[in-house]
Amino acid sequence: MVSYKVILIKNGYVIENNSLVLKDVLVEDDKIVEVGVIEDKGYEVLDAKGCLVMPGAVDVHVHLREPGFTKKETIKTGTMSAAKGGFTTIMTMPNLNPVPDNLEALKVQLDIIKRDAVVNVYPYGAVTVNQEDKEKADIEGFYKYVKAISDDGRGVNNLEVLKEAMLLAKKHDLVIASHAEDNYWKYAPEGEFIAVRREIELAKEVGCKYHFCHMSTAESFEAIRKAHEDGYTNITCEVAPHHLVLNEEMIKDGNWKMNPPLRSEKNRLATVEALLDGTAIMVASDHAPHTVEEKSREYSKCLNGIIGLETSLPIIYTSFVKTGMLSLDRFLEVMVYNPAKVFNLPMRKIMKGSIADIAVIDIENPHTYTKDEILSKGVNSPFIGNTYYGFTRYTLVNGKLVYKG
Ligand code: DOR
Asked: What are phi and psi of 191, to 5 degrees?
């Protein structure tokens, strides 16, 4: 990690009033101290020509695999991958060993984060013991250490336990992030939207903050849209880049396999619509690294999941901002501000006084994503070989340069 005391980010664009405006950004220690036309008085200069200087992106859905599955990823490699993707804050899912279903297990992860993470990391606690859908996790024991709880990787089908967890989430102002999946229907579209519909009813009844992960079917979005129309703003959802730009016709091999799976073109278009009309309040990558062996088996035996931290910003910028479908302001909302707001994370802005969590992304020079450049331990990406705008040139966390492209 390189560390400078005063950093001048020179000649980049910042977003003001939904437009790109040429401005320099001066960072001293961990804070932004000036935004404007700034003379170089011998500072460390980062050349941001052709780049957007934005608050570091926030990804609430990341699998870092440590403790337990360090062959796939570690907190070190996963957070380096996040920094490469312009993410300065991420939330990590609990399908680990040990599962963070009690404070002692959670602390194993918190200690490694303290030692190895190069970006801000907030772990989820589990909803049920060992994510087994039988009894509620010791939420009372660990709630002070987390912003949210989830059993991601599998659905909570035990509605009695789910309701108990919802009541505790409400009491302690935690978000529940739901991997909505009905165990009978599994990966079929019904598996998702049947679970979404019943969980919406429970979340309406309890009134806790309830967030649906990686939504991918038209029926799910309809149900969430209806809940919003009925005034339930405590119910939110995210969409993943892969469900926005890929469909089931495009599947080539194990690197196109994830859960929820790629779906029909109709469902892909519904996912895009949900992002554009605000039904989906944020984008999250579902970064899910696996080993080469786990992803190169016969398709039916490949594990679910693709990496996504390094391509999320480029895909959203290129496919939706550059094409004029998503405004610059909305881009910041779905990638930075809304995830921070919904999950009660510290807010960062490009303005004087803000903590300097900053991503500088190249919006003028396209780049082709290659296997060699990947910083995640996983290379399971369907986006290798694709060309995008919006790859990261620099990432700063707490005023320190943690990635340079
Ligand atoms: O594709 C997926 N991968 N979906 C999940 O729900 C879990 C994740 C993983 O942990 O690999």
From this structure: -55, -40
